[in-house]
Structures are given as C-alpha cells and as structure tokens.
Amino acid sequence: MKILSVVGARPNFMKIAPLVHEMRKYPDIESILVNTGQHYDTAMAGQFFEQLEIPVPDVSLEVGSGTHAVQTAEVMKRLEPVLEKLRPDVVVVVGDVNSTMAAALTAVKLHIPVAHVESGLRSFDRAMPEEINRLVTDAISDQLFVSEESGRANLLKEGVDPGKIHFVGNVMIDCLERFRPLWARSDVRQRIGVDGVPYGVVTLHRPSNVDEPAMLEKLMEALVDIGRQIPLIFPVHPRTRQRLASLDVPLVTSLKGAQANGKGILCVDPLGYVDFMALVSSARIVLTDSGGLQEEASVLGVPCLTMRENTERPATVTHGTNRIVGTSTTKIMAEAWRVLDEPKPAPKRPALWDGRTSERIISILRKI
Ligand code: UD1
Questions:
Q1: Per-residue pLDDT for the chain (368 aa), expressed as one digit of tens each?
Q2: How far is the CA of 41 from the centre of ligand 1 (A)?
Q3: In ligand 1, which atom is closest to the CA atom of 205?
Q4: How far is the CA of 271 from the centre of ligand 1 (A)?
Q5: Among residues 363, 176, 193, 201, which one has the least CA distance to residue 273?
Q6: N or C terminus of the chain: which is more exposed, having fewer CB within 10 Å?
C-alpha cells in the first residue's frame, strides 16, 4: 500500500509525526512524505522535523509564503505532477492549513482517495481561513478521521455518509505522549529564568487578532496588565513579530535583566516542540488564539484562556481546561485573575485522547 502524506505548516508536523512512525511498523506500507514548504524557517519548520524524528521528505515543493490564492495555487501546481507520477493509493492530509486543502483538492481531481485527519471541526466562522480549509477538505475527502465527538456530529449534520466517518481521537496527543520523556527533561525554564516560579505562556498569531493594530493593541494591553502579576513568556510567530514592531508596548528581552521584579512579557523566538511543551506543561496559565494549544493545555492540566470568540474544539471547554474569553481587554484580565486565584486543575482528556490514535488510523487505512 502506497500512502502519501502531506505536511506544510507548523501545526502539521506534530500530527504527521505519529502517523509516519506508525506506518514504519508495517513492511507492506510504502510511506511517501511530501513537504509543501508553506513554513520554511528553521524556527517554524526545520527544528520540528529534527525533534519529532520526521524523515527527510521524499519531495519538497518549496512553495513558501504568499496570499491565500497564490499559496494554494502553488501547492496544487507543484503537487499535481508528483501525484501523477507516484499514483499513491491514498493521500493523507492533516489539520486545516492552506496546504491541507490544496493537497486534498489536487488529489481528488486525479481520482486519488483522500484521508483527512482532524476532520469535522467547525468554528462556524467563515472569516477564518482555516474554517474554509476545513469545509472544503471535508467535503471532498473519502475517509474522515475525527478527533472529538463534535466532529462526528458536524459531519453528520452536513449530510456526510456515516460510513466515511471514523472517530479515532486526537493524533496530536499521540505526539505529546511519545515525546513526553524528551520534553520532561528540557531545561528551558532554567534557560529562560522561570524555574520554580509561576509564569504564563502566550501565543498569538490569528490574522483577526494581529493584523489590525487596534485589536493587537487591545490584546497587548490585557497581557501587559497580567504580566505585572505573573511573568508571561511569549514565543512570537513571524506574522505577529512584524505587527508588534509597529506598536509601542513594553516588552522585555530578558526577565532577569530588564526588570528587577522579574515580571513583564518576555518575547522570544518561536520555540521548538520539546521546549514549548516543557514550558506549557509547568505553566500556571496559557493565553492563546491557537487551536492545538487548547488541546495540549487540557491534557497537561493547564488553565487555558482562548482569546477568540469561538472554538472549533468544544471538547476542550466541556472536557478540558479551556475557556473562550473573547478579545475584550477587561474580560481577558478578569478571567486571568479568576484562574490565578483558583487551584490548578487536574489534567483532562476527552474520549480517545489516549496516545493511540495513529494506531487506529493506520489500522483503518490498511483495510480500505
Ligand atoms: C498558518 C496557518 C494557520 C496556522 C499557522 C501556524 C493557513 C491559512 N494558516 O498561518 O492555520 O495556525 O500557520 O503557524 O494555512 N513566515 C515566516 N517564516 C515561515 C513561515 C511564515 O517568516 O517559515 C511569515 C511570512 O511573512 C508569512 C507569514 O509569516 O507571510 C504568515 O505565514 P502563512 O503561512 O501565510 O500563515 P500563518 O499565519 O503562519
């Protein structure tokens, strides 16, 4: 069986890694890896291949950055001849980035079956580029691997044949568990200067939050205020770094050096998987607009405040540690104070987030 898997952007890497590791167990599976190159920096891509032991891609499309249309079109143009030549039995795509949708569309037009991992999630907000990617990818995929109950319910409501839907759990949690021994040993807290002290972790990169200066300023106002009580470590995404540069917000570059009381917002470059998970696992609070981090924080028992109006991952609210707090400065601050007053919650796992999702997926793929 020839399985061609596609990766492209940072959130793809922790989803594809457990799947390619699982495929290796079967000598009758020929695993081919294509990297679209949507993310290309060492910080955003290179270090993840290394740390997550993802094999060197068989094909690199090197599409790089661009508008949505350009990025999508470039993946399609460059992937089509690869698929025509290799003719895999199935193309596996993960998540909801532009590379996911572009690869699914290219394969299905060549009548190659597509399997979508992390299917069925819906924010019901079509202004989010990822929501469009999710809708299109699910509409054209042949096998839909669902991470949480809401995914199945959403697909059924959209009229999808129940025979295509497989509730298998969350492949990203496989990655978290597989590399637990590595991140548990990381000395990132000592390196950053927050070992043994309560601290928070911030990530922010959604276009709706960072592209408008007024919105970014409003969010940063809340973070600066929270940073006066508890140091916040902020690994800054390249999109956000460009936008932050034009704002006048007090950011520190070293917690020890810049402020005698060791508080504030410490901006660092994007971290690798191992250091980031180590940092999150011991954090007192996470403030984010990321999708995956809502899931990881839940399993690690870290309170998560999601600075968005919605989530496509409702299990993290009903069965996890996540709260959707929106983007109002006062609401974010009030929720953060509340979390910091409460005892740390226990880790919580929605059904089938048990580290064995990739086993279930590959076992189903082998039978189709
Ligand atoms: C993409 C995904 C988003 C995901 C995020 C995680 C889509 C529509 N969006 O958003 O779902 O949560 O990745 O990071 O697919 N850049 C670099 N180096 C890189 C990559 C990007 O400097 O390696 C800069 C470029 O200036 C680029 C900008 O970041 O224009 C945005 O990158 P892009 O891939 O367009 O979208 P993300 O915001 O990263």
A1: 999 999 999 999 999 999 999 999 999 999 999 999 999 999 999 999 999 999 999 999 999 999 999 999 999 999 999 999 999 999 999 999 999 999 999 999 999 999 999 999 999 999 999 999 999 999 999 999 999 999 999 999 999 999 999 999 999 999 999 999 999 999 999 988 888 889 999 999 999 999 999 999 999 999 989 998 999 999 999 999 889 888 766 666 555 544 444 568 888 889 999 999 999 999 999 999 999 999 999 999 999 999 999 999 999 999 999 999 999 999 999 999 999 999 999 998 999 999 999 999 999 999 98
A2: 10
A3: 38
A4: 15
A5: 176
A6: C
Of all protein residues, the one whose alpha carbon is nearest to atom 27 of ligand 1 is 65
CA of 189 to the centre of ligand 1 (A): 27
Count Cβ neighbours within 10 Å for each residue of 316-352 and write b for 16 or more, e otherwise.
bbebbbbbbbebebeebbebbeebeeeeeeeebbbeb
Q: Which of 97, 99, 134 to mutate to test the pocket of ligand 1 (most atoms within 8 A of CB)?
A: 97
Residue ranges of domains in the chain, CATH in brackets: 2-169+353-367 (3.40.50.2000), 182-341 (3.40.50.2000)
Q: State yes or no: is 205 an active-site residue.
A: yes
Which residue has the least CA distance to atom 9 on ligand 1?
97
| Beta-carbon-side half-sphere exposure of residue 6 (alpha carbons within 13 Å) | 36
Distance in Å, CA 261 to ligand 1 centroid:
34
Beta bridge partners of 304: 286, 322
- What kind and span of H or E run contains 292? helix 292-300
Atom of ligand 1 nearest to the CA of 292: 12
- Dig out the tokens for 283 from the structure: 């954090």
